[in-house]
Amino acid sequence: MDCIRLEGRAYIGGRFVRVKIGGGDCRLVQLSNRYLILPGMVDLHVHFRDWGLSHKETLEGGARAALAGGVVAVADMPNTSPHIRTAELYRKRVEQGSGLPILYKLHMGVPEKVAELDQARPRSVKIYPEDVARFGWQHVEKLAERCATLRCVLVFHCEDPAYFRNGERPPDAEVACVEKVRQIVHRTGARVHLTHITLPYTAEATRGWASVDATPHHLLLDVDNCKDPALCLVNPRLRTPEIRKRLLAALASGLIDIYATDHAPHTLEEKQSGNPPPGICSIDIALSLLLSLWKRGVVSLDDVVRLYSFRPSRLLGVDVDVARGLFTVVRLEEFEIRGSDFAGSCKFTPFEKFKAFGQVEATAVRGKIYFKTGETYSLQPPQ
To answer: Contact 326/3 with Cβ under 8 angstroms?
Structure first.
């Protein structure tokens, strides 16, 4: 594999600096100021499917989509087939993911027996509303007690299933869940993260006892501007324009800790069926959508790096640093989103024809740099 050295403008430590990456006799590639080097992005909420769901996506396809979006590390969800509820399945999946070109982390699913946590020693455990319905809040509290000792993070899809009615999942379900989880944290001292929140209330009510993330679709799409009911179906549901705008304001004011995609591939046939599954694909363009908010003045470039790189990397225990070869290169131009350009199995999106900014040109991880054109180079001279 040929090797290259990069020289260009980077955003590091809150300022723009010229950097040189790589060394030896590798070919030098000089980037103009149309390009910007950023720390690699970290997505703590993805569904890379496989394991009985490979018709939707595979680990390899998910990794391609991540690289296309400037993402160097992900945390995958456990709702595969079978659901990853045991230490054996957890270790098997982590081992399989270790061979990917990105850094792969995994949230363990809720085990039937809490002792599975002692064997698996996961960094995080994902709790779905379906888990609450199946095992009950008392079981969730037992998990919290054990995780408080093992120092694992409980990652909640925070909707109380007791509030679901006739297929509808109202905002009250999120409000009720927030209160229940707050009580659990108070009693156990467990560390908690609430993922894909939809309400500004949640961002405000969790200050001091939980971290939260929001998705591109809950920040930018709502029941009015998302026109295709099937492609726009997601859990938690999209909200009204007023709620969405207030959630975006919460992001701008610093009340939201992390930006994460909930990248959830399905086949187009499934999404266009009479019973479409919930899920939106966005990891390919999530960074560009966030950079669009920077371009509009909604967030700062510091916010971009904090939300989608540094804070999720700390939660997952990933050390992201340009100097360590974990970075992405973006072209500072506006472009139109086309699902057909996506690198994974999912080739459609409710963000079709949206204007985005900062197209990812290359992503570097594990000593290699992957270009949008399909070329791959080493950043290290041959031994």
So the answer is: no
Condensed to tens digits (0 to 9), the pLDDT of residues 89-142 reads: 999 999 999 999 999 999 999 999 999 999 999 999 999 999 999 999 999 999
| Active-site residue list | 262
Torsion region of 56: left, alpha or beta (phi above 0 gives left; psi -120 to 50 gives alpha): alpha
Q: Could you give the CA distance from residue 325 to residue 365 in angstroms, rounded to a whole number? A: 6
- What pTM, to 2 d.p., does this model score? 0.97
Instruction: Give the span between the Cα atoms of 91 and 98, in whole angstroms.
Output: 11
Per residue in 355-377, pLDDT (tens digit) is 999 999 999 999 999 999 999 99
In this prediction, residue 383 carries a pLDDT of 66
| Secondary structure of the chain in HEC code, one letter for each residue | CCEEEEEEEEEECCEEEEEEECCCCCEEEECCCCEEEEECEEEEEECCCECCECCCCCHHHHHHHHHHCCEEEEEECCCCCCCCCCHHHHHHHHHHHCCCCCEEEECEECCCCCHHHHHHCCCEEEECHHHHHHHCHHHHHHHHHHHHHHCCEEEEECCCHHHCECCECCHHHHHHHHHHHHHHHHHHCCEEEEECCCCHHHHHHCCCCCEEEECHHHHHCCCCCCCCCCCCCCCCCCCCHHHHHHHHHHHHCCCCCEECCCECCCCHHHHCCCCCCCCECCCCCHHHHHHHHHHCCCCCHHHHHHHHHHHHHHHHCCCCCHHHCCEEEEEEEEEECCHHHCCCCCCCCCCCCCEEEEEEEEEEECCEEEECCCCEEECCCCC
